[in-house]
Inverse folding.
């Protein structure tokens, strides 16, 4: 039992570690459940070649070629045509709101040009605030529409690929809001949300556990502070910290990355305020559930990873299956990303993003309510 | 409901899971009284105190604290009670002055700065007010905690083992302060392990395994125990002590320096047991005073048997 290494001493250490692991239920559950949940969640939800993207067609002509192209697009699974705009202005507003990612305009002279073999054109406007989502669907468009046109003309699809210069269908692609397809335009505003979420939730998730671990909770509860006072007193200081972060990230976005800033600063800052308030209350809610700071940390990460993956920050939101999108809607980050991209890159005003602002605001009373319900004003 | 009682609770019961930690405890403390709360570790002292100040919800029991319902008016009770926790529970990363300011503002003292300045002066800590509370020694932490608890001039002071780990001089000063506060009309309930501290209380309550076993003045408790003590003067060999301890009627045999305390409930049996010892050794045996400690040892063994 002496010397540098004893298997019995090692055995004693191992046995002790396993006992402690078993006692800390949350940690143990996290170690087993989290990999499984995340594997299933992300394995099935994430798709880099998104299908079913929300799109709209503005068909200005009524000829058979137009109808052929429209129906071919409608049956393809690349797009989901929910909206039927009647005018260019209506379509424009749908895109500003983020309700559609693509607008396909078939000009009124489309049929005539096809028959005259005079370079028929289709205008594609893609919401390039998310470059990854836009690119795949744009390239698919050419194939689908081209085939439909060939079939409508009664030609053999494969035998005559050239057809002649004037025959070939051409696409005019407008990458809206981000014509140069710069990734930073998408990432940097999103990063503001991610950074705020990371720091705000993590800091406040320790709010109560720190008091409990240091033994100061007993004293705090014995004094006449109410649950609401403790909650607000704990989370509001982090609003100030968040404000500093906002200034730094927005400043960097402008100066270092030259991200366009089209919308109103006041509207953006108000939305950021609501977002940060939701985050600190979420963190505080976590701190009412965790018993130790370590658990608070683990719960924060448990929340952080899916919100990063399913919010549309890393992967196109529209490309995820319906259930994953529904799950994604439950994260404040999802709504914040839509808001900040709309304001900064599209110049959206409150009318365009009103619904998203309402959804984001709803998190505040929900989190505050859960936290107050979970808060124990006794040591029971 | 009597207004002259600061604490008047009956049937207080608290269970954690299946374990009953406090079992049907009655407690009545008159205004201005210092009541010592005694009992072994884990006997339910802290839990009882926490129920009185509203930090724990009793599973059963009723009564009043400062005339307020202990079950429903804990918020109001908190404002008039000072509770000093067993473990130092102020912010170690705040300075002394910052801790006091925080407490003063929570209690809504106006002006808070003035109350703090007065407290600092009273503590003799004015020159060290910018020192971090975490760097204070045990004795100073205790003084700071007490000062913070009485800053809002509570009517009832609850002290949970306030002198644990504090040197005798600081303990003496602490008790002088407690008596001064009680003299000004504050009611004090203090839990302790120390017999000498129990003797500085007006009345004591003894709790073991969640049950209140005795209450009264020290004399009443000692007398009520029915214990008789004899003191053997001189050195008694270990073998003789073992024989004595096994003898009929002897409940406790405890050496105190050069003397031996022999305790039992039956005077005649005790005398009979001691007779051979004094005859063999020629040591002087005479009736002695039963100490509070003897009584508690008896209570503990008795309660243990009942709990088992």
């Amino acid at each position: 039992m002496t010397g540098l290494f004893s298997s019995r001493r090692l055995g004693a250490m191992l046995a002790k570690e396993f006992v402690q692991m078993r006692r800390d239920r949350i940690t143990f559950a996290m170690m087993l459940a989290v990999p499984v949940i995340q594997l299933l969640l992300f394995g099935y939800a994430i798709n880099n070649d998104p299908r079913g993207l929300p799109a709209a067609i503005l068909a200005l002509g009524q000829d058979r070629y137009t109808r052929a192209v429209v129906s071919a697009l409608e049956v393809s699974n690349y797009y989901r045509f929910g909206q039927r705009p009647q005018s260019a202005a209506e379509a424009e507003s749908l895109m500003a709101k983020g309700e559609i990612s693509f607008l396909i305009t078939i000009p009124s002279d489309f049929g005539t040009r096809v028959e005259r073999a005079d370079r028929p054109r289709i205008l594609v406007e893609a919401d390039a605030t998310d470059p990854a989502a836009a690119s795949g669907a744009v390239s698919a468009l050419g194939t689908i529409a081209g085939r439909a046109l060939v079939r409508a003309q009664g030609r053999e699809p494969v035998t005559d690929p050239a057809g002649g210069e004037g025959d070939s269908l051409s696409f005019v692609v407008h990458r809206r809001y981000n014509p140069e397809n710069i990734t930073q335009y998408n990432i940097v505003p999103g990063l503001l949300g991610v950074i705020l979420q990371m720091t705000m939730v993590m800091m406040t998730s320790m709010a109560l556990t720190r008091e409990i671990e240091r033994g100061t909770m007993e004293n705090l509860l014995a004094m006449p502070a109410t649950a609401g006072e403790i909650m607000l007193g704990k989370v509001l200081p982090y609003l100030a910290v968040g404000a500093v972060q906002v200034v730094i990230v927005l400043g960097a976005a402008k100066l270092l990355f030259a991200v366009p800033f089209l919308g109103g600063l006041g509207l953006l800052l108000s939305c950021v305020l609501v977002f940060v308030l939701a985050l600190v209350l979420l963190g505080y809610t976590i701190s009412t559930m965790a018993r130790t700071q370590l658990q608070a940390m683990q719960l924060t990460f448990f929340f952080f990873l899916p919100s990063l993956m399913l919010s549309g920050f890393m992967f196109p939101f529209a490309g995820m299956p319906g259930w994953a999108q529904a799950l994604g809607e439950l994260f404040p980050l999802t709504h914040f990303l839509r808001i900040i991209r709309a304001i900064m890159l599209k110049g959206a005003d409150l009318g365009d993003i009103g619904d998203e602002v309402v959804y984001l605001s709803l998190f505040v009373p929900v989190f505050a309510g859960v936290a107050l319900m979970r808060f124990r004003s006794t040591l029971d | 409901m009597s207004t002259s009682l600061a604490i008047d609770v009956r049937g207080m019961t608290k269970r954690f899971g299946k374990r009953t930690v406090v079992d049907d405890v009655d407690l009545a403390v008159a205004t201005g009284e210092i009541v010592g709360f005694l009992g072994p570790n884990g006997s339910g002292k802290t839990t009882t105190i926490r129920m009185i100040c509203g930090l724990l919800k009793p599973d059963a029991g009723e009564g009043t604290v400062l005339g307020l319902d202990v079950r429903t008016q804990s918020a109001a009770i908190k404002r008039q009670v000072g509770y000093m926790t067993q473990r130092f529970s102020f912010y170690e990363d705040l300075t002394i002055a910052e801790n006091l300011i925080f407490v003063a503002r929570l209690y809504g003292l106006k002006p808070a700065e003035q109350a703090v300045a007065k407290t600092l002066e009273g503590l003799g800590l004015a020159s060290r007010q910018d020192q971090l509370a975490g760097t204070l020694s045990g004795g100073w932490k205790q003084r700071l905690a007490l000062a913070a608890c009485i800053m809002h001039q509570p009517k009832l002071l609850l002290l949970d083992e306030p002198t644990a780990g504090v040197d005798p001089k600081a303990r003496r000063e602490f008790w002088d302060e407690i008596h001064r506060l009680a003299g000004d009309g504050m009611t004090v309930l203090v839990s302790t392990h120390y017999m000498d501290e129990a003797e500085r209380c007006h009345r004591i309550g003894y709790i073991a395994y969640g049950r209140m076993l005795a209450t009264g003045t020290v004399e009443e408790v000692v007398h009520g125990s029915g214990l008789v003590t004899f003191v053997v003067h001189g050195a008694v060999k270990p073998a003789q002590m073992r024989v004595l301890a096994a003898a009929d009627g002897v409940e406790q045999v405890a050496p105190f320096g050069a003397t031996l305390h022999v305790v039992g409930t039956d005077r005649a049996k005790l005398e009979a047991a001691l007779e051979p010892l004094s005859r063999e050794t020629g040591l002087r045996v005479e009736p002695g005073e039963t100490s509070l400690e003897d009584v508690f040892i008896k209570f503990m063994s008795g309660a243990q048997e009942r709990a088992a």
Notes: DSSP finds 15 helices and five strands in chain A. Residues 183-374 of chain A form one domain. Chain A has a mean pLDDT of 87. The two ends of chain A are 46 Å apart (CA to CA).
